[in-house]
Specification:
Order of helices and strands: EHEEHEEHHEHEHHEHEHHEHEHHHHHHH
Largest sheet: 4 strands, parallel
CATH architecture of the largest domain: 3-Layer(aba) Sandwich
Shape: globular
Helix content: 25-40%
Strand order of the largest sheet: 6-5-8-9
Radius of gyration: 25 Å
CATH topology of the largest domain: Rossmann fold
Distance between the termini: 57 Å
CATH class of the largest domain: Alpha Beta
Number of strands: 11
Number of helices: 18
């Protein structure tokens, strides 16, 4: 097992956090605790799904990304954009206008991530033929899902297909194109415009690869606002580039729910939204379902159209892209972006380099590396849980009674943090009221527990 912690794009700003516990309650891997009135991230449990970012009422959770001005460190500056980026703009704004403004902002080339789909489809089908026993195969597209499986469903890591997602395939093609023109690699900067935090983490700390070919990551909400503002300020739709290229219909919808599953053979299902994914993986792990060939699993509702860094309504974005794909079905000839050949020109090279290394489990359920010790700790967890009320109220600063029991066994919490246990100890005379208040202050901070200490006149 790899004991190194993940790189995380999600950060908690302690100066802004009010300890409301919203983030703790929605985290799918119970990676957040409240201590001294502030949310605290448990790094080895976090999968960067961004659910905490969505619900924070005071914007205390931020997503760390690269400064936009970093693009100017390179002579050749490539914006690697997913289709959901252009799909967020109103219909009256063309892709050509969007790409043109991006070049005016400083990029020298624009390339859409989903170009890599044209290589990936054949690779997935070939992988399925070569691995007929391992079912269901699980898509490697969503990095939040990959990390979820690593930490919460470690027995299923071998089901993940060991091929690169479209993002990495397209980046590999771009590097190949510049190298073929004699341009040194150090002069080329590839910047991915991300709809989510998980892809930032995956680029900074890739799973199944030693490093990423991508130079930096730009938050989609930042670039969307910048481009939209400049497009609206323009008095005409003149463009700085003669052509922006055009994706095929299947590539256009690949990052949407069922965009991937609909293109593969066998019984393929598409599941989106992280809690739905967890529920389905539990069924797979319990062997309740055994007749599924392929699973497209995405952490966000409506897949990438619902990423935490998108701005437009996810349903409208998905509808725009599906309408665009329908129109392209009527004229399915693919144009390649100006300055690049068609990606199929490097198909053999990309297929030869499409595999990733085995994905290692990093289970959060494992209480100790030593199996005998882990069994003892699990027994203690079970005994502690018999003493706890099992109401998952969160007052102890942990999201559930089970999480508190595990924290206690790992020496990260005390049983008297449970308010129900406190009351029992007070009744027995084993804990004073002042001691109970002190425990609550350690969890929720002084201000929350002090304001109600003088109840006279209420």
């Amino acid at each position: 097992m790899d004991n190194n912690t993940f790189h995380h794009a999600l950060k908690i700003r302690e100066d802004l956090c009010i300890g409301c516990s919203h983030c703790m309650n929605v985290c799918p891997t119970e990676a957040i605790r409240v201590k001294n009135g502030k949310s605290v991230l448990i790094a080895e449990k976090c999968i960067d799904c961004g659910e905490c970012f969505r619900v924070c009422p005071v914007s205390a959770i931020i997503i760390d990304h690269d400064d936009f001005n970093r693009i100017f460190d390179y002579k050749y500056r490539v914006a690697l954009i997913p289709s959901v980026f252009t799909g967020q703009f109103p219909d009256e704004i063309s892709e050509k206008q969007i790409h043109s403004v991006m070049m005016e902002l400083g990029f020298t080339h624009i390339y859409e991530v989903e170009n890599g789909v044209e290589i990936l489809v054949d690779a997935i089908n070939k992988y399925a033929e070569q691995n007929p026993v391992q079912r269901p195969l699980i898509s490697s597209f969503c990095p939040a899902v990959i990390r979820l499986i690593q930490v919460k469903f470690p027995s299923l890591v071998d089901n993940i297909i060991r091929v690169k997602p479209p993002l990495d395939i397209s980046a590999g093609f771009i590097i190949r194109e510049f190298a073929g023109s004699g341009i040194p690699a150090e002069e080329v900067g590839i910047f991915y415009v991300t709809p989510c935090a998980a892809k930032i983490a995956a680029i900074k700390d890739p799973v199944g690869e030693s490093s990423s070919s991508i130079s930096g990551v730009i938050n989609m909400d930042f670039l969307f606002s910048k481009v939209l503002r400049q497009v609206k300020q323009k008095k005409s739709d003149t463009c700085a580039i003669p052509t922006s290229g055009e994706l095929t219909a299947r590539a256009t919808c690949w990052s949407l729910t069922n965009g991937e599953a609909s293109q593969l053979s066998g019984r393929c299902l598409a599941i989106d939204e992280i809690h739905n994914v967890i529920e389905f993986l539990e069924k797979i792990e319990n062997e309740e379902l055994n007749d599924i060939d392929y699973l497209e699993l995405r952490a966000c509702d409506e897949s990438c159209a619902g990423g935490v860094l998108t701005t437009s309504n996810r349903f409208l974005t998905a509808d725009r892209l599906r309408n665009r794909a329908t129109n392209r079905d009527k004229a399915p000839v693919q144009k390649h972006p100006e300055g690049f050949r068609d990606i199929s020109s490097e198909k053999q090279f990309l297929e030869d380099n499409i595999s990733i290394d085995p994905i290692k489990p990093r289970s959060i359920l494992m209480l100790d590396e030593n199996m005998a010790e882990a069994m003892k700790k699990m027994d203690r967890v079970n005994r502690i849980m018999m003493l706890l009320p099992m109401v998952d109220c969160g007052i102890c600063g942990a999201p559930s009674c089970q999480a508190l029991a595990q924290d206690i066994v790992q020496n990260n919490a005390k049983i008297h943090q449970c308010i129900f246990i406190q009351k029992i100890l007070e009744q027995k005379g084993e804990m004073s009221l002042e001691e109970g208040v002190s425990v609550m202050q350690d969890i929720w901070g002084f201000s929350k527990t002090n304001k109600y200490r003088d109840l006279k006149g209420i």
